[in-house]
Structures are given as C-alpha cells and as structure tokens.
UniProtKB/TrEMBL annotation:
Keywords, ordered alphabetically: Coiled coil, DNA-binding, Nucleus, Phosphoprotein, Transcription, Transcription regulation
Domain BHLH: 4-58
Pfam families: HLH (PF00010)
Major site of localization recorded for this protein: nucleus
Cellular component, GO annotation: nucleus
SMART domains to which the protein is assigned, alphabetical: HLH
Protein name (database record): MLX interacting protein-like
Organism in which the protein naturally occurs: Neovison vison
Superkingdom of this protein's organism: Eukaryota
Coiled-coil residue spans: 48-89
Gene3D superfamilies tied to this protein: Helix-loop-helix DNA-binding domain (4.10.280.10)
Keyword Transcription: yes
Amino acid sequence: KTESRRITHISAEQKRRFNIKLGFDTLHGLVSTLSAQPSLKVSKATTLQKTAEYIAMLQQERAAMQEEAQQLRDQIEELNAAINLCQQQLPATGVPITHQRFDQMRDMFDEYVRTRTLHNWKFWVFSILIRPLFESFNGMVSTASLQSLRQTSLAWLDQYCSLPALRPTVLNSLRQLSTSTSILTDPGCIPEQATRAVTEGTLGKPL
C-alpha cells in the first residue's frame, strides 16, 4: 500500500509539473516579448512578470480601442443628425430651382416649339399636350449633379408619368385645346392658329 501511494504521488507530481510546464510554454507563445526570442531561457518569475506586463498592455489597448469606438459612434450619430437636419430643410421636390433657370428653360422650350411648328403646324398641337409635363419636369428635376439629376428624374417619372397621373394631365390639355382653338368647330383653321400662336408670342395661352 505504501508503495502504491508513493507511485500515485509521483504520478500526480509528474502530471502537475507537466501541466505547469505546458502553461509556461503557452505563455511563451502568447506573450509577444517572450515569443520574439524563443531560444532565450527565461525564469518562471520573469515569465510571470512579462505576462503581467503584457496583460496590462492589452487592457490599456482594449480600453483605448473602446474609447475610440465610442468616439466614432458619437461622430456617426452627430453626422446622421446633421444629415437628417439637412434633409428636413430640403424641399420635397429636391434641390430648389432658381426662377432664372426656370424661365430660361421655358424660353428654350417655347423657341423649340416655335421652330418646329413653323416647320410643321401639328407640332404645336403636340406642344399643348406635352407642356404640363415640361412644366413639372422644369420645376422638379435638378441638374446640380449627375446624382441629383438621376434621383430627381426618377422621382419626376414616378410622380408625373404613371398612367394614373398622365390621364388627368392629358385630359386637361385636350380640354384646353378644345376650348382655346377651333379644332372642334373649324379644324381647317388650326394651321393658321398654330402659326399665329408661335409668331405672336401666345404659346401656351388661349387664342
């Protein structure tokens, strides 16, 4: 029994020493200041000291990273708040269009209609149908940048060019054409009326 206890004790001691050695070997591999010199013999006390220093350094780095991450989160929140504020201040139709640019575009449209109508009077009839779409496009679409052009153009298409939106627009244009010209009572006079409209500056106005 004594011999058996001695053997058991020796086995337990060997296992304990093996586990301790394995633990120190693991520390040598984990601690950068020790793993950088694997061939250097270091005492257990030095290993424990270097390990404690390494843990303290990691804790400091972790605290610094957490602080930096919190600062970044705060900056993101501030930027999001600023973006939301800017978006709230923008008009619902996108970037505001200056009256000067709006008038310039309208003048260009009228000049184009005049030129095409003098070539073919039927274009004037078409211009009456298309003018409301031009007016909405001119007032809504922004050319400040390619991105804003794309975004506002798509928004304009969704809002004004769907069938539910086009039907009343075209109906109103047809009503205007019927009430402001003789297309129903004397269609033969339409070419003359179209020419007079573009030469006398009455585009888009009742004749």
